[in-house]
Design a protein that fits this description.
Protein name: D-alanyl-D-alanine endopeptidase
Number of domains: 2
Organism: Rubrivivax gelatinosus
Pfam family, one: Peptidase_S11
Largest sheet: 5 strands, antiparallel
Structural class: alpha+beta
Family: Belongs to the peptidase S11 family.
Number of strands: 16
CATH superfamily of the largest domain: DD-peptidase/beta-lactamase superfamily
CATH architecture of the largest domain: 3-Layer(aba) Sandwich
Keywords: Cell shape, Cell wall biogenesis/degradation, Hydrolase, Peptidoglycan synthesis, Signal
Radius of gyration: 22 Å
Protein backbone atom coordinates (compact mmCIF):
# COMPACT_ATOMS: atom_id res chain seq x y z
CA UNK A 1 0.00 0.00 0.00
CA UNK A 2 2.86 2.42 0.91
CA UNK A 3 4.42 2.59 -2.53
CA UNK A 4 1.07 2.29 -4.26
CA UNK A 5 -0.33 5.46 -2.72
CA UNK A 6 2.29 7.64 -4.35
CA UNK A 7 1.58 6.41 -7.89
CA UNK A 8 -0.58 8.13 -10.49
CA UNK A 9 -2.23 11.53 -10.76
CA UNK A 10 -5.56 12.78 -11.99
CA UNK A 11 -5.92 16.52 -12.19
CA UNK A 12 -3.19 18.78 -13.62
CA UNK A 13 -0.83 19.84 -10.85
CA UNK A 14 0.88 23.17 -10.43
CA UNK A 15 4.60 23.25 -11.16
CA UNK A 16 6.52 24.99 -8.39
CA UNK A 17 9.15 26.11 -10.87
CA UNK A 18 6.50 27.56 -13.16
CA UNK A 19 4.46 29.18 -10.42
CA UNK A 20 7.15 30.35 -8.04
CA UNK A 21 5.88 33.89 -7.97
CA UNK A 22 6.15 36.32 -5.11
CA UNK A 23 3.03 37.04 -3.02
CA UNK A 24 1.09 40.12 -3.99
CA UNK A 25 1.36 43.19 -1.76
CA UNK A 26 -1.63 44.12 0.38
CA UNK A 27 -2.71 47.73 0.19
CA UNK A 28 -3.02 49.51 3.54
CA UNK A 29 -5.68 52.02 4.45
CA UNK A 30 -4.77 55.68 4.28
CA UNK A 31 -3.46 57.12 7.53
CA UNK A 32 -5.68 59.65 9.28
CA UNK A 33 -4.46 62.30 11.65
CA UNK A 34 -4.22 60.90 15.19
CA UNK A 35 -6.72 62.05 17.79
CA UNK A 36 -5.54 64.62 20.28
CA UNK A 37 -2.52 63.51 22.24
CA UNK A 38 -1.94 60.41 20.11
CA UNK A 39 1.50 58.90 20.22
CA UNK A 40 3.13 57.28 17.24
CA UNK A 41 5.08 54.10 17.76
CA UNK A 42 7.46 53.40 14.91
CA UNK A 43 10.06 50.76 14.22
CA UNK A 44 13.18 50.83 12.08
CA UNK A 45 11.19 49.29 9.22
CA UNK A 46 8.78 51.22 7.02
CA UNK A 47 5.58 51.62 9.08
CA UNK A 48 2.32 50.04 8.08
CA UNK A 49 -0.35 52.70 7.54
CA UNK A 50 -3.02 52.86 10.23
CA UNK A 51 -5.90 55.06 11.26
CA UNK A 52 -7.28 56.04 14.66
CA UNK A 53 -11.03 55.84 15.25
CA UNK A 54 -12.87 57.04 18.37
CA UNK A 55 -16.00 55.28 19.55
CA UNK A 56 -18.34 56.25 22.37
CA UNK A 57 -18.48 52.86 24.06
CA UNK A 58 -15.08 51.28 23.55
CA UNK A 59 -12.90 54.39 23.35
CA UNK A 60 -10.15 54.71 20.79
CA UNK A 61 -9.17 51.83 18.55
CA UNK A 62 -6.48 51.51 15.95
CA UNK A 63 -7.39 50.10 12.55
CA UNK A 64 -5.04 48.81 9.89
CA UNK A 65 -5.45 46.79 6.73
CA UNK A 66 -5.39 43.60 8.78
CA UNK A 67 -5.78 44.31 12.50
CA UNK A 68 -7.98 46.26 14.93
CA UNK A 69 -6.42 47.00 18.31
CA UNK A 70 -8.53 48.44 21.15
CA UNK A 71 -6.77 50.81 23.54
CA UNK A 72 -7.70 53.12 26.43
CA UNK A 73 -10.73 55.44 26.01
CA UNK A 74 -8.58 58.34 27.27
CA UNK A 75 -5.46 57.65 25.30
CA UNK A 76 -4.96 56.70 21.68
CA UNK A 77 -1.83 55.06 20.34
CA UNK A 78 -0.91 54.49 16.71
CA UNK A 79 0.88 51.17 16.43
CA UNK A 80 2.70 49.46 13.60
CA UNK A 81 0.99 46.28 12.42
CA UNK A 82 3.06 43.79 10.49
CA UNK A 83 1.22 42.25 7.50
CA UNK A 84 0.41 38.55 7.73
CA UNK A 85 3.16 36.34 6.35
CA UNK A 86 2.26 34.53 3.13
CA UNK A 87 2.42 30.75 3.24
CA UNK A 88 4.80 28.87 0.96
CA UNK A 89 1.79 27.74 -1.10
CA UNK A 90 0.70 31.34 -1.60
CA UNK A 91 4.21 32.36 -2.60
CA UNK A 92 4.33 29.49 -5.12
CA UNK A 93 0.96 30.53 -6.57
CA UNK A 94 -0.71 27.20 -5.73
CA UNK A 95 -3.95 28.89 -4.65
CA UNK A 96 -4.53 29.83 -8.27
CA UNK A 97 -5.09 26.16 -9.15
CA UNK A 98 -8.77 25.56 -9.95
CA UNK A 99 -10.68 22.50 -8.81
CA UNK A 100 -14.34 21.44 -9.29
CA UNK A 101 -15.11 21.65 -5.57
CA UNK A 102 -13.69 25.17 -5.15
CA UNK A 103 -11.51 24.09 -2.23
CA UNK A 104 -9.72 26.72 -0.16
CA UNK A 105 -6.77 24.39 0.36
CA UNK A 106 -4.07 24.75 -2.28
CA UNK A 107 -3.24 21.03 -1.96
CA UNK A 108 -5.76 18.20 -1.66
CA UNK A 109 -5.78 14.44 -2.09
CA UNK A 110 -8.45 11.83 -1.42
CA UNK A 111 -7.52 8.16 -1.85
CA UNK A 112 -9.51 4.96 -1.37
CA UNK A 113 -7.51 3.14 1.30
CA UNK A 114 -8.45 -0.34 0.08
CA UNK A 115 -8.15 0.06 -3.70
CA UNK A 116 -5.62 2.92 -3.88
CA UNK A 117 -7.99 4.72 -6.26
CA UNK A 118 -7.42 8.48 -6.36
CA UNK A 119 -10.79 10.22 -6.00
CA UNK A 120 -9.59 13.80 -5.82
CA UNK A 121 -6.23 15.34 -6.62
CA UNK A 122 -5.02 18.94 -6.47
CA UNK A 123 -1.29 19.73 -6.53
CA UNK A 124 -0.50 16.36 -4.87
CA UNK A 125 3.24 16.55 -5.57
CA UNK A 126 3.81 20.07 -4.22
CA UNK A 127 6.33 19.95 -1.36
CA UNK A 128 5.30 22.29 1.46
CA UNK A 129 5.81 22.77 5.20
CA UNK A 130 3.50 20.41 7.09
CA UNK A 131 3.44 21.98 10.57
CA UNK A 132 2.09 19.65 13.27
CA UNK A 133 1.22 16.90 10.81
CA UNK A 134 4.86 16.13 11.73
CA UNK A 135 3.65 14.75 15.05
CA UNK A 136 2.04 11.79 13.28
CA UNK A 137 5.53 10.58 12.33
CA UNK A 138 6.70 11.38 15.86
CA UNK A 139 4.01 9.09 17.26
CA UNK A 140 4.77 6.40 14.68
CA UNK A 141 8.49 6.33 15.55
CA UNK A 142 7.80 6.16 19.30
CA UNK A 143 5.24 3.39 18.80
CA UNK A 144 7.45 1.25 16.58
CA UNK A 145 10.41 1.68 18.95
CA UNK A 146 8.29 -0.14 21.58
CA UNK A 147 9.27 2.33 24.29
CA UNK A 148 7.30 1.89 27.50
CA UNK A 149 4.30 4.19 27.68
CA UNK A 150 4.55 4.07 31.49
CA UNK A 151 8.00 5.68 31.71
CA UNK A 152 7.87 9.12 33.32
CA UNK A 153 9.31 11.93 31.17
CA UNK A 154 10.16 15.45 32.33
CA UNK A 155 9.63 18.67 30.40
CA UNK A 156 12.91 20.59 30.33
CA UNK A 157 14.06 23.97 29.07
CA UNK A 158 15.13 22.17 25.88
CA UNK A 159 11.44 21.59 25.10
CA UNK A 160 10.54 25.29 25.18
CA UNK A 161 9.74 26.63 21.71
CA UNK A 162 12.37 29.05 20.47
CA UNK A 163 11.26 28.68 16.82
CA UNK A 164 7.87 30.42 17.04
CA UNK A 165 7.71 31.44 20.70
CA UNK A 166 4.48 29.47 21.26
CA UNK A 167 3.14 28.98 24.77
CA UNK A 168 2.37 25.77 26.65
CA UNK A 169 0.65 24.75 29.85
CA UNK A 170 3.31 22.10 30.39
CA UNK A 171 5.75 24.12 32.46
CA UNK A 172 9.41 23.22 32.74
CA UNK A 173 9.65 20.46 35.34
CA UNK A 174 6.27 18.91 34.47
CA UNK A 175 6.37 15.12 34.70
CA UNK A 176 4.03 12.90 32.69
CA UNK A 177 4.23 9.37 31.38
CA UNK A 178 5.33 8.77 27.81
CA UNK A 179 1.77 7.65 27.03
CA UNK A 180 0.36 10.94 28.37
CA UNK A 181 2.94 12.94 26.43
CA UNK A 182 2.05 11.12 23.23
CA UNK A 183 -1.67 11.60 23.89
CA UNK A 184 -1.28 15.37 24.29
CA UNK A 185 1.03 15.63 21.28
CA UNK A 186 -1.34 13.78 18.96
CA UNK A 187 -4.71 15.00 20.27
CA UNK A 188 -3.94 18.58 21.35
CA UNK A 189 -0.78 19.10 19.27
CA UNK A 190 1.25 19.86 22.40
CA UNK A 191 4.68 20.94 21.17
CA UNK A 192 6.63 20.48 24.38
CA UNK A 193 5.23 16.99 24.77
CA UNK A 194 6.28 16.09 21.22
CA UNK A 195 9.80 17.45 21.73
CA UNK A 196 10.12 15.57 25.02
CA UNK A 197 9.22 12.34 23.22
CA UNK A 198 12.10 12.95 20.84
CA UNK A 199 14.57 13.85 23.58
CA UNK A 200 13.82 10.66 25.50
CA UNK A 201 14.49 8.45 22.48
CA UNK A 202 17.68 6.31 22.63
CA UNK A 203 20.43 8.61 21.40
CA UNK A 204 18.40 11.74 22.07
CA UNK A 205 16.86 14.21 19.65
CA UNK A 206 19.40 13.80 16.80
CA UNK A 207 18.84 10.04 16.77
CA UNK A 208 15.07 10.55 16.87
CA UNK A 209 15.06 12.92 13.87
CA UNK A 210 17.29 10.45 12.02
CA UNK A 211 14.76 7.71 12.80
CA UNK A 212 11.93 9.90 11.49
CA UNK A 213 13.69 10.41 8.17
CA UNK A 214 14.70 6.76 7.95
CA UNK A 215 11.08 5.70 8.43
CA UNK A 216 9.95 8.15 5.77
CA UNK A 217 12.41 6.69 3.28
CA UNK A 218 11.40 3.14 4.20
CA UNK A 219 7.78 4.01 3.45
CA UNK A 220 8.75 5.53 0.10
CA UNK A 221 8.09 9.10 1.25
CA UNK A 222 10.82 10.57 -0.93
CA UNK A 223 9.43 14.14 -0.89
CA UNK A 224 9.62 14.26 2.91
CA UNK A 225 12.21 15.73 5.27
CA UNK A 226 12.13 16.25 9.04
CA UNK A 227 14.45 18.41 11.15
CA UNK A 228 12.58 18.21 14.49
CA UNK A 229 9.58 16.35 15.99
CA UNK A 230 7.01 19.12 16.55
CA UNK A 231 6.40 20.75 13.17
CA UNK A 232 7.26 24.25 14.39
CA UNK A 233 10.05 24.41 11.83
CA UNK A 234 9.07 25.21 8.24
CA UNK A 235 11.90 22.90 7.18
CA UNK A 236 9.68 19.92 8.01
CA UNK A 237 8.21 19.40 4.55
CA UNK A 238 6.28 16.80 2.58
CA UNK A 239 3.76 16.30 -0.22
CA UNK A 240 0.14 15.14 -0.13
CA UNK A 241 1.19 11.86 -1.78
CA UNK A 242 3.72 11.16 0.95
CA UNK A 243 1.33 12.13 3.75
CA UNK A 244 -1.31 9.72 2.43
CA UNK A 245 1.32 7.00 2.82
CA UNK A 246 2.07 8.18 6.37
CA UNK A 247 -1.62 8.15 7.33
CA UNK A 248 -1.97 4.61 6.00
CA UNK A 249 1.08 3.44 7.99
CA UNK A 250 -0.02 5.15 11.20
CA UNK A 251 -3.54 3.73 10.86
CA UNK A 252 -2.12 0.21 11.22
CA UNK A 253 -1.36 0.94 14.90
CA UNK A 254 -4.40 0.86 17.23
CA UNK A 255 -2.72 3.17 19.77
CA UNK A 256 -2.32 5.90 17.16
CA UNK A 257 -5.93 5.50 16.02
CA UNK A 258 -7.08 5.78 19.63
CA UNK A 259 -4.98 8.78 20.65
CA UNK A 260 -5.54 10.88 17.51
CA UNK A 261 -9.32 10.46 17.65
CA UNK A 262 -9.66 11.08 21.38
CA UNK A 263 -11.71 14.19 22.16
CA UNK A 264 -10.49 15.10 25.65
CA UNK A 265 -7.87 14.20 28.23
CA UNK A 266 -7.20 15.15 31.85
CA UNK A 267 -3.66 14.97 33.23
CA UNK A 268 -2.27 15.72 36.67
CA UNK A 269 0.34 18.48 36.58
CA UNK A 270 1.58 18.92 40.11
CA UNK A 271 -1.49 19.48 42.27
CA UNK A 272 -3.65 20.54 39.34
CA UNK A 273 -5.74 18.58 36.85
CA UNK A 274 -5.39 20.10 33.42
CA UNK A 275 -7.96 19.50 30.70
CA UNK A 276 -6.84 19.15 27.07
CA UNK A 277 -9.03 18.89 23.98
CA UNK A 278 -8.77 17.78 20.38
CA UNK A 279 -7.71 20.32 17.76
CA UNK A 280 -10.12 18.77 15.21
CA UNK A 281 -13.80 19.46 15.84
CA UNK A 282 -14.83 16.92 13.19
CA UNK A 283 -13.95 14.16 15.65
CA UNK A 284 -17.07 15.14 17.63
CA UNK A 285 -19.26 15.51 14.54
CA UNK A 286 -21.72 12.59 14.17
CA UNK A 287 -21.61 13.02 10.38
CA UNK A 288 -18.03 11.77 10.43
CA UNK A 289 -16.54 8.39 11.28
CA UNK A 290 -12.86 9.22 11.68
CA UNK A 291 -10.31 6.48 12.25
CA UNK A 292 -7.20 8.66 12.53
CA UNK A 293 -6.47 12.38 12.16
CA UNK A 294 -3.97 15.17 12.73
CA UNK A 295 -4.14 18.92 12.27
CA UNK A 296 -1.34 21.42 11.80
CA UNK A 297 -0.68 25.12 11.50
CA UNK A 298 2.22 27.52 11.19
CA UNK A 299 2.10 30.62 9.00
CA UNK A 300 4.44 29.08 6.42
CA UNK A 301 2.23 25.99 6.08
CA UNK A 302 -1.26 27.44 6.35
CA UNK A 303 -3.97 25.26 7.92
CA UNK A 304 -3.40 21.54 7.35
CA UNK A 305 -5.42 18.39 8.01
CA UNK A 306 -4.94 14.67 7.36
CA UNK A 307 -7.55 12.01 8.15
CA UNK A 308 -8.60 8.44 7.66
CA UNK A 309 -12.39 8.27 7.55
CA UNK A 310 -15.28 6.04 6.51
CA UNK A 311 -17.38 7.90 3.94
CA UNK A 312 -19.92 6.70 1.41
CA UNK A 313 -19.19 3.08 2.30
CA UNK A 314 -15.45 3.45 1.67
CA UNK A 315 -12.35 3.81 3.82
CA UNK A 316 -10.70 7.00 2.61
CA UNK A 317 -7.48 8.88 3.29
CA UNK A 318 -7.82 12.63 3.02
CA UNK A 319 -5.01 15.22 2.90
CA UNK A 320 -5.60 19.00 2.91
CA UNK A 321 -2.61 21.37 2.99
CA UNK A 322 -2.11 25.13 2.94
CA UNK A 323 -5.70 26.12 3.58
CA UNK A 324 -6.21 29.87 3.96
CA UNK A 325 -8.48 30.82 6.84
CA UNK A 326 -8.95 29.43 10.34
CA UNK A 327 -11.92 27.18 9.50
CA UNK A 328 -11.35 26.62 5.79
CA UNK A 329 -9.73 23.18 6.14
CA UNK A 330 -12.85 22.00 8.00
CA UNK A 331 -15.01 23.59 5.32
CA UNK A 332 -13.02 21.80 2.62
CA UNK A 333 -13.41 18.47 4.39
CA UNK A 334 -17.17 19.05 4.55
CA UNK A 335 -17.29 19.91 0.84
CA UNK A 336 -15.54 16.64 0.05
CA UNK A 337 -17.83 14.65 2.35
CA UNK A 338 -20.97 16.16 0.81
CA UNK A 339 -19.67 15.54 -2.69
CA UNK A 340 -18.85 11.89 -1.94
CA UNK A 341 -22.26 11.27 -0.37
CA UNK A 342 -24.30 13.17 -2.97
CA UNK A 343 -25.86 11.97 -6.19
CA UNK A 344 -23.47 14.22 -8.08
CA UNK A 345 -20.50 12.48 -6.51
CA UNK A 346 -20.11 9.53 -8.89
CA UNK A 347 -20.51 11.69 -12.00
CA UNK A 348 -17.97 14.20 -10.72
CA UNK A 349 -15.79 11.37 -9.47
CA UNK A 350 -15.50 9.90 -12.94
CA UNK A 351 -13.93 13.14 -14.08
CA UNK A 352 -11.58 13.36 -11.11
CA UNK A 353 -10.49 9.78 -10.65
CA UNK A 354 -8.90 7.07 -12.80
CA UNK A 355 -10.32 3.55 -12.85
CA UNK A 356 -7.67 2.52 -10.34
CA UNK A 357 -4.13 3.16 -9.25
CA UNK A 358 -2.21 -0.08 -9.53
CA UNK A 359 0.66 -1.28 -7.38
Amino acid sequence: MAAALIAGSVMPTASLAATGTQPSKTKSTKAAKPAGGAKKVRSAKAPVKTRVVKTAKTGTRVESARTVVKVSPRKSVVVQVEPAKASFGQQYGLHRTDDPLDLKSSVALVVDQDTNQVLLSKNPHAVLPIASITKLMTGLVVTEAHQSLDDVLTISQDDVDTEKGSSSRLLVGTQLTRGEMMHLALMSSENRAANALGRHYPGGLPAFVQAMNAKAQLLGMHDTRYVEPTGLSSQNQSSARDLAVLVNAAYSHPILRELTTSTDASVAVGRRQLQFHTTNGLVRNPSWEIGLQKTGYISEAGRCLVMQAHLAGRKLIMVLLDSAGKYSRIGDAERIRKWLTSEAGPALGSALAPAAVHN
